[in-house]
Amino acid sequence: MPFDYTRPIRFHETDGAGVVYFANSLVLCHEAYEASLEAAGISLRDFFSPGRLAYPIAHASIDFRRPLYCGDRIVIGLTPERLDESSFAIAYRLHTAEAPDKLVATAQTRHVCIETQVRSRTPLPEPMLSWIEQFGQS
Question: Is the pTM for the entire model greater than 0.85?
Answer without folding.
Answer: yes
